[in-house]
Design goal:
- This protein has two domains: about 325 residues, ABC transporter transmembrane region fold, CATH 1.20.1560; about 250 residues, P-loop containing nucleotide triphosphate hydrolases (Rossmann fold).
- The protein is about 65% helix and about 10% strand.
- The chain has a six-stranded mixed β-sheet with strand order 6-9-10-3-11-12, sandwiched between helices. It has a four-stranded antiparallel β-sheet with strand order 2-1-4-5, covered by helices on one side. The protein has a two-stranded antiparallel sheet with strand order 7-8.
- Strand 1 and strand 2 form a beta hairpin.
- Helix 2 runs parallel beside helix 5, helix 5 packs antiparallel against helix 7 and helix 10 packs antiparallel against helix 11.
Length: about 600
Amino acid sequence: MDKESKVMSSKEQRLVLFRLLNYAKPYIRPMFFAFFLLALATVGEVVGPILVKIFIDDHVTPRNFEMTPIIILAVTYLFIQIANTFIMYFQSVKFQTIALKIIQQMRIDVFSKVQALGMKYFDKTPNGGIVSRVTNDTEAIKDMFVSVLAVFIQSAFMFVGIFIAMFTLNVKLAAFCLLFLPILYFIIRLYRKISSKFYQDMRERLSGLNAKLNESLQGMGIIQVFRQEERMRREFGEINEGHYQAGMRNIKVDGLLLRPAVDLVYILAVIIVLGFFGITSMQTAVELGVLFAFVNYLNRFFEPVNNVMQQLSFFQQAIVSASRVFILLDETEIAPSQENHKDAKIIDGKIEFKNLSFSYDGKQDVLKNISFTAYPGETVALVGHTGSGKSSIINLLMRFYEYNRGDILMDGKSIKQYTMDELRKKMGLVLQDPFLFYGTIKDNIRLHNDEITDETIIEAAKFVQAHPFIEKLPDGYEQQVTERGSTFSSGQRQLIAFARTMAMNPKILILDEATANIDTETEELIQTALAKMRKGRTTIAIAHRLSTIQDANLILVLHKGEIVERGTHQELLAKKGLYYKMYLLQNGLRETIEDVVIHQ
């Protein structure tokens, strides 16, 4: 079993709990105030039966109905009950506030961690599982701070207060009641041991539900086109059934070891107390007030036990959820780090790959001894069949993945020496499938960069031929963009992505088949814009259509992670190697047939 699905030991649960409580450190003072309110409420709970005992033994039994002391007792009892109501309200609000602030901070930490993780982590982790940790798991942790912690502390106060009162009433019987504590401890320990495994299983299955739901929503178009609805329903149903079965196992354990088991112990305790007073009454008179108070305290003693047992299920869920959150927070697969030489600046944009080799899994190289130079103002095109390593070169250049063999130089310095901020400012990336955020077109071009003015946005849109279609929209640049820009065509999304890149005015331009999703008419406009964009910029372009990179200064032909050919378009055609074959395939076999006829 992997580190996320193994059953947690008691020691691991304690470590998770202590780490969880560290989040409460900034709120020590308000928590102590909340605990103080709990203590006051507990005192009120303990004093109430004593006042009733005094009323029975001093007034009802001897028929002493002197009004003044009775009124004082009644007013005192009523005041305590009313005061307890307000105290419990304020302590509940206090705990809720603290819990919400803690969960707010935890969610910020988790979200920030996700933003800092490397692409390698997302390659192996379903998005739904990550969403589950940020939402469902942190919500379960909130329940612990809201109710579990308060109940545990209140119960501790109640235990102490009740036992003090019981020892005051009858030392021998109170000492005898202490014998029930080991039995209750055994029940609690047994429940934690069994339920931990089931809650772990249930949380993992809930994560699987979120992952499957996320996958189906993102691929809804493909699911409907290929009539996969029944299969998706079946797979979701299987995961849902597993979650149901895990939940039923939890319910069965809760039903056996929570209130029923504690109630059984409570009944035994009541039988012993009543038996003790019954035997005692044969020898000496028994005060009814003492009997009432003792039975009342016994009930009040077991009620907190029941409350604690009921909260144990939330506690176990919180511990399991916290362990999953902490596994994410402790994830070491972070984005590549930089040496951060703050004085290192990208001036010219010269790029040099030196003997670079790279593997995603540490076993099989996807890039082997890659070496080439892209000079300022020049365009280097990467071509090759699927899986040849083109995107891997871009991923390393953009610092999405870490490399250890060879180096990538920029203006003569390793790209590791530049700050990430410097790299991102000077490098512009346009992907084959552009991503648009929810908001307006203006927001998607600016990306909340205050340095980019409205005039710059419009100029960038005009530069890439996006202005005409944006201007025709009902709200122009204020037009709302739905999730992933689904209301725009592929070509329009690509044009907005081009405008976004040009608004940054990068020194280095990286194009990942940027014209693949654009129609022929739009592509002609884009090619004109690209020619202007490349002027004065170092451009690295991945191309599947060879017609789009015929004017490149250098074309690298990749095959199985190696550069097998390099040169200009005409030079590579003259070699009649792999590039030549790819060119003929894309332009049909007529040229080959004509060559054969002419030579015959």
